[in-house]
Design goal:
transmembrane helix; 479 residues; single chain; AB_hydrolase_1; membrane; two-stranded antiparallel sheet; AB_hydrolase_fold; transmembrane; eight-stranded mixed sheet; Rossmann fold
């Protein structure tokens, strides 16, 4: 190599100058100083994104790669950030739940009973006093909604029914449904009763007493009770509690299990009498029969004692079962589960209740899902489920007492009811003496919503026959 091409460093050469020098072309990015590369070479996995970005910024001399006022760490966080989704259940917003009173309609009313603010609506018949006297009925009508429903389900028929009965029509939301206040109940047994335990607002006993209280609120001695689906249970239990306060029962798609077999009491009584006569003759003629009877009696006493012990054990197991069930249904897991169930099957259940699902518009869906915006709706629904399960185990089935109903009864059902089959309603009419059974064609579980005109016509005919209501055009408001 020639001396001209040799490179001899001098004190003023670029290698010894404090000014950074790079033999690379100007287009290439600047190299990192050794003081920055040393820790990088020692432990590269431990280098943080923040350290590398600061080093690059210090070397480049400007922050042109990033917006002013923002670091690389902030930009990295923004790139992975997702828009916050509002939590909903069956289309109802769950982020901002409100008090039930804040969701009330202009015509809503609240009546406090045993510490519970019960949401209800009252519709007046609007006729003049002379016309009301000519109708000769004047009995108020109380409407009892089904499971998962509310006062909204009676919205289309309240005013026409008020004109039919010539009196007031009242519909109220049972606890755990609609806009009635939600209260927490943590009784030991889970059901109301006694002086030591307060009345459970979600029990059947509370709904029955509330119904009788509304009859008093209307200032009437008697009232006609109309129940739909599970509301029929409240209507029938109210009759058994105070039959003198119920003028008639109208059961729409009743969710009451009808008995399968109707025993013939006369034949049973005759057979028992014959057995008694034969046993008396045998005991008089044969002395060994008396010894055998005494032995059998002793065995029966021992069996009775054993049954008493089993009953005590059963009561103990029942108490433990009630406590375990209460703990499960009042847990956080149960709250999450009920939200998932309502969110997945709530809208589907509403559509399946109709014969023609095309009639289920946004107005109907909003009316049924509006109570899901009230505070504590899920815990109240769990409390209602708990009370319903424990109530069913503590009382005899209502199907065994249907023959005791003596007031006029109308049973209305749809021929294509998918939730409560029409054949169950037909068997129910056979179990209740002197009841009237009506079937509405091309109708599902909600005759009073899906077939308004036909439903009102059936109710009118029944009231005409029982109370002598005059025949006139009473359904103009349903159009």
């Amino acid at each position: 190599m020639s001396p001209e091409k040799m490179f001899i460093p001098t004190p003023h050469s670029p290698l010894l100058s404090p000014k950074p020098y790079s033999p690379n072309p100007p287009s290439s990015p600047p190299l990192l100083p050794p003081t920055i590369l040393i820790p990088f070479l020692r432990s590269p996995p431990r280098m943080s994104l923040r350290f590398i970005c600061k080093a690059a910024a210090s070397v480049s001399g400007s922050g042109a790669e990033y917006p002013v006022g923002q670091s690389a760490e902030q930009l990295a966080g923004e790139s992975h950030a997702k828009p916050k989704m509002r939590r909903k259940v069956a289309g109802a917003d769950q982020e901002e739940l409100l008090e039930p009173e804040a969701l009330a309609d202009p015509d809503s009313c609240f009546y406090e009973f045993n510490g519970v603010k019960i949401h209800h609506k009252v519709c007046h018949h609007g006729a003049k006093e002379e016309e009301a006297d000519a109708g000769k009925i004047g009995l108020p009508l109380i409407l009892l909604h089904g499971f998962g429903a509310s006062v909204f389900s009676w919205d289309r028929v309240m005013k026409p029914l008020a004109r039919v009965v010539g009196s007031k029509v009242l519909a109220f939301d049972r606890p755990a449904f609609g806009l009635t206040s939600r209260l927490s109940y943590f009784g030991q047994s889970g059901i109301g009763g006694g002086d030591a335990t307060p009345l459970n607002p979600y029990s059947m006993a509370f709904s029955v007493l509330a119904t009788l209280s509304f009859i008093d609120l209307l200032g009437a001695q008697k009232a006609i009770l109309m129940g739909h689906s599970a509301g029929c249970l409240v209507a029938v239990n109210t009759y058994f509690e105070a039959p003198e306060r119920v003028a008639a029962l109208i059961l729409v798609a009743p969710a009451i299990v009808a008995p399968f077999l109707m025993r013939k009491e006369n034949q049973v009584d005759k057979g028992e009498k014959r057995k008694d006569e034969n046993s008396n003759l045998d005991s008089r003629e044969n002395p060994f029969v008396r010894i055998w009877s005494a032995f059998c009696q002793l065995c029966m006493n021992l069996v009775g004692l054993a049954l008493k012990m089993v009953k005590r054990m059963r009561d103990m197991v029942k108490t433990l079962y009630a406590r375990a069930l209460s703990a499960v249904l009042r847990s956080t897991f149960a709250v999450m589960l009920i939200r998932m169930i309502i969110d997945k099957f709530g809208i589907v259940a509403i559509r399946n209740a109709w014969f023609d699902a095309n009639q289920v518009n946004d107005h109907v869906l909003q009316g049924y899902t509006k109570p899901l915006r009230a505070k504590g709706w899920e815990t109240a629904l769990l409390e209602y489920t708990l009370a319903m399960i424990l109530d069913s185990g503590s009382k005899p089935p209502i199907s065994k007492r249907l023959s005791e109903i003596l007031c006029p009864v109308l049973i209305v059902t749809g021929d294509t009811d998918r939730l409560v089959p029409s054949w169950n309603a037909e068997r129910l009419s056979r179990a209740i003496p002197n009841s009237t059974f009506e079937v509405i064609k091309n109708c599902g579980h909600l005759p009073h919503e899906e077939k308004v005109d036909e439903f009102l016509s059936v109710v009118e005919r029944f009231l005409q026959r029982v109370f002598g209501v005059r025949n006139e055009e009473l359904f103009e408001a349903a159009a």
